[in-house]
Amino acid sequence: MRKITSLEINDLPIRFKIIALLLVISILPSIGFGSLISIGVDKVIDKQTTGHTLQLLGQANKSLESYIENMQDISYIISFNPEINTFLQGGGDPGGDNHYGMRQFLQGFTTINPEIAGILVINSKGDYISNEMYAQDFQTVTDEEWYRTAVENNGIFKIIGHPANRSFKTHVNYQNSEIVSGARAIMDPETQTVIGVILIDLKVRVISEVIEDIELGKSGYLMVMDDEGEFIYPPQPLLKDQIQPSWFEKGSSGTFSKSIDGENMQFIYRKSPFANLTTIGIFSSNQSVMEARQINFYVITFLFIVCAFGIGASYYLSYSMSKPINQLNAFMNQVESGDLSIRYKGDRADEIGMLGRSFNKMLEQISKLISLIEIQGRQKRDAELQTLQSQIKPHFLYNTLDTINWMARKKDALDVAEVVESLSQLFRIGLSKGNDIIPLEKEIEHIFSYLKIQKARYKDKLNYSISIDSKLYNLSVVKLILQPIVENAIYHGIKERRGPGHISITGEESNGNLVLYVKDDGVGIPGERLAILNENLSTNFDSLEETKMTNHIGYGVMNVQARIKLTYGEPYGLSIDSLPGKGTTVKILLPLNR
Questions:
Q1: Among 132, 229, 372, 492, which one has the highest count of C-beta atoms within 10 angstroms of its own C-beta?
Q2: Nearest Cα to 477, choosing from 519, 430, 443?
Q3: H/E run at residue 530
Q4: Beta bridge partners of 75
Q5: Which residues contact 14 (CB under 8 A, 6 or more apart)?
Q6: CB pairs under 8 A, 24+ apart, for 34-38?
Q7: 528 assigned to some structural domain
Q8: What is the distance in angstroms between the CA of the first residue and the CA of the last residue of the chain?
Q9: What gap in Å lies between CA 384 and CA 202, rounded to an integer?
């Protein structure tokens, strides 16, 4: 699949970009919002279903616990009966009248509590009393599992599930699946030994009445399992064979999903510590899914409406925005063909209207600039003609100075000849055929000629020295940067001091730059004036015209600084250091241009 690059996207018409943008900012957030709602609804439904089911399971457990607690209370009441207690201690005849009275006593409990199927009291010898039960085998009663389980619980009432392999039968002949048994061992208060067991059978229909009153959706149901993993009440016998008791070992309550016979089933359970029973709610996951689907249908319908509205709005807005832009583009094409009379006509107040009015102003400015360029072209041609004419004057001046030079030498006026020759050299290098950048060697020749002329004037008052390595002579510099500084040193430093003065010009390469120094031992510069001068030297110059504003602090120095700044930029230029009565040093920092 070919990858779309950013350049290809940029080549698309603006209308398509606007449509894509509006669809992205309207439809994608709506889809994301709808997805979040769908996910949130699923979670809320699951949470509410789980919470509601756990509440129902808690109610079922309370009802079952009340029955179990009633059975436990009955076992306590029976054990406190003096005749029963005597029987448990091993006294009395099983066939005597006392036993008839005790059976009548037990019969009263089953009459008052119809949910009780039968009560059995058996002592440690194997003798028993019951109102509804009779034994089939007298030899193995105390060896049966239910008896041993009761003994192992040391006087704590325990549900032991459906009767299995028990030697007792009831007169009503209940099936094992129709009753659930609970037993409690009776302890001797003095020796803490087991003296007998009270067995109580509870009718399962009581549990079914509690469970059937609780509805879990349309097809959900409840199951009850004891702590041994036996199902006391399974409404679907076939399903219980596929349920593993190990699924419910984690925690006192919980929820999980399992696939049974190809159908995803949701399990929610809650344990009853008092009754040692686990109530399990089972329902198909499709029930919550159907509710979520109904909500998702509304969300999808809403998204469809939003998408339809977004697409229509994006097409309309893109057309309204792209039409004037295309119109401006057509105008620009006409301008490219040379038609500057075209104008945008519209009263829009938005950015496109502003762009159109700016387009009109631009055309007006272009028309004015074209007229101005035509005028400047004529002026340039006139200036070039005047320049060609003015070039005749320097040549005449050079020739005249050469004539004076030779006439002075012919008259043996060598000092006059030397001054005239220096002046001629000064003019020739100063003009430099119109070049602004000259070799450093030429700049040194220029300042040397200037100093020779000044030496002829000031005699012993002025002394000078120039010490620059000849390796630096081929570097290019802005012309006439030393003469204004040397002139200031002579007129404001050497001339004002008593006795002769000295000016030294040195240069070196430092940190990839060319550094020139002009030092004098004149009177120096006062501190206040030096601060003003350095402050003005740090000015950012946009043109040489700005130097006229600094006439009062030395036009020549500021002119040099402005030309260096405008040519090379920062950090190049002049810096001045001076001590009154000691002299002045001007540092010139230039790039190392070879």
A1: 132
A2: 443
A3: helix 527-537
A4: none
A5: 321, 322, 325
A6: 34/299, 34/300, 34/302, 34/303, 37/295, 37/299, 38/292, 38/295, 38/296, 38/299
A7: yes
A8: 56
A9: 128
In the block, which residue shows the tokens 């079914």? 208
CB atoms within 10 A of CB 119: 25
- 174 and 75 together in one domain: yes
Q: E strands along 178-324, which residues?
A: 179-187, 194-203, 221-226, 231-233, 253-260, 263-272, 277-284
Answer for the pair 520, 451: CB distance below 8 angstroms, yes or no: no
Q: What are the 10-residue block averages of pLDDT along the chain, 594 residues in total?
A: 54 67 69 70 66 69 74 81 80 57 80 81 80 69 78 80 75 75 81 82 75 62 70 63 70 72 72 71 63 67 74 72 74 78 75 78 84 81 58 54 66 68 66 73 86 83 90 89 89 88 92 93 90 83 50 70 86 91 92 84
281 CA to centre of own chain: 44
Per the structure block, which two tokens stand in for 363?
């055309």
Of 198, 153, 152, 206, residue with least CA distance to 179 = 206
Pairing of strands 462-468, 501-510: parallel
Per-residue tokens: 29: 């957030």
Task: Give strand pairing partners of 467.
Answer: 506
HEC profile of 58-126: HHHHHHHHHHHHHHHHHHHHHHHCHHHHHHHCCCCCCCCHHHHHHHHHHHHHHHHCCCEEEEEEEECCC
- In our burial notation (b when 16+ CB lie closer than 10 A, e otherwise), range 303-329 reads beebeeebeeebeeebeebbebbeebe
* Gap between the Cα atoms of 486 and 484, Å rounded: 6
Regarding whether 474 and 382 lie in a shared domain, the answer is no
CATH of the domain at 248: 3.30.450.20
- For the record, the structure tokens of 180 come out as 């659930």
Residue 172 covered by a domain:
yes
3-state secondary structure of 555: helix
Query: Which amino acid appears at position 248 of this protein?
Result: F
Q: What total number of domains does the chain contain?
A: 3
* Beta bridge partner(s), residue 466: 505
Crossing angle (nearest 10°) for helices 14-80 and 286-336 = 160
Domain for residue 451, yes or no? Answer: yes
Q: Would you say how long the chain is, in residues?
A: 594
Q: What CA–CA distance (Å, rounded) separates 240 from 221?
A: 12
Rounded to two decimals, the pTM is 0.43
SS3 content of the chain, % helix, strand, coil (to 5): 55, 20, 25
Q: Are residues 60 and 204 in the same domain?
A: yes
379 and 522, same domain (yes or no):
no
Contact in structure between 367 and 340 (CB atoms under 8 Å): yes
Q: Residue 579 maps to which CATH number?
A: 3.30.565.10
331 falls within a domain: no
| Residue 101 token pair | 């009275």
Q: Verify that 377 and 504 share a domain, yes or no.
A: no
From residue 112, alpha-carbon distances to 70, 98, 107, 108, 132 in Å are 12, 22, 9, 6, 14
Cis amide prior to 571 (ω within 30 degrees) = yes
Range of the domain at 374: 340-390
SS3 337: coil
Calpha distance 446→443 (Å, rounded): 5
